[in-house]
Design goal:
The structure holds 2 protein chains of 2 kinds.
Chain A: E1 4-7, E2 10-13, E3 19-25, E4 31-38, E5 42-51, E6 54-57, E7 64-66, E8 76-78, E9 87-94, E10 105-106, E11 110-114
Parallel strand pairs in A: 2-11
Antiparallel strand pairs in A: 1-3, 3-8, 4-5, 4-9, 5-6, 7-8, 9-10, 9-11
Chain B: E1 5-7, E2 10-14, E3 19-24, E4 32-37, E5 44-49, E6 55-58, E7 61-65, E8 71-76, E9 85-91, E10 99-100, E11 104-109
Parallel strand pairs in B: 2-11
Antiparallel strand pairs in B: 1-3, 3-8, 4-5, 4-9, 6-7, 7-8, 9-10, 9-11
Classes of the chains: A mainly beta, B mainly beta.
């Protein structure tokens, strides 16, 4: 199993450009999520999904869109990049259910710089 | 939503010294997960605690969940340079998003 994969690893954008960060998992996990990590801020949840066709906002959703058309893929779209979106982005997946928390598997991250 | 506070934010220790990071909440936690992130890497799951007063060990790492389920700690005995990284606690239940603390960054001086 490849686990959680993310592409690209690095990206530089100009202000106003749009792009999609790709995330895929091959563990048949229902739950997928996107986090951004900034120095001193920990991991902040952007959007998450509990299954195909279902998405919801996290703590910092503004400027980002997501969709979940398949169990495996959960792309994150930046609509109009801003310097404040310079960050490291992590995708994660896990099992989902009501009986307890589950281990999150993280991808290697995408390091995004917006100039 | 649920918030977990981690202290300290940074810790510098000499190799061989012990290290402890604490995770606190004002409300009762469903469970606590701990993750480690090496510099330049991604968070990796270490353990989950569910029961009040639970203590689990992984080699030199000891994890505790408070009796009131409002706090947790991670203790590393005799730190090594391989322990360098940021340690995060996170609280989550089955059907709500995981909430992470801001992490404790550990530096180990050889």
């Amino acid at each position: 199993n490849a686990g959680v994969t993310q592409t690209p690893k690095f990206q530089v954008l100009k202000t106003g450009q749009s792009m999609t960060l790709q995330c895929a998992q091959d563990m048949n996990h229902e739950y997928m999520s996107w986090y951004r990590q900034d120095p001193g801020m920990g991991l902040r949840l952007i959007h998450y999904s509990v299954g195909a066709g279902i998405t919801d906002q996290g703590e910092v959703p503004n400027g980002y869109n997501v969709s979940r058309s398949t169990t495996e893929d959960f792309p994150l779209r930046l609509l109009s990049a801003a310097p404040s979106q310079t960050s490291v982005y992590f995708c994660a997946s896990s099992r989902y259910g009501t009986s307890g928390g589950y281990e999150q598997y993280f991808g290697p991250g995408t390091r995004l710089t917006v100039t | 939503g649920q918030q977990v506070m981690q202290i300290p934010q940074y810790q510098h220790v000499q190799e061989g010294e012990d290290f402890t990071t604490y995770c606190n909440s004002s409300t009762t936690l469903s469970n606590i997960q701990w993750y480690k992130q090496r510099p330049g890497g991604h968070p990796v799951f270490l353990i989950q605690l569910v029961k009040s007063g639970e203590v689990k060990k992984q080699k030199r790492l000891t994890f505790q969940f408070g009796e009131a389920k409002k706090n947790s700690s991670l203790h590393i005995t005799a730190t090594q340079t391989t322990d360098v990284g940021t340690y995060f606690c996170a609280e989550g239940s089955g059907n709500t998003p995981l909430v992470f603390g801001k992490g404790t960054r550990l530096s180990v001086i050889a």
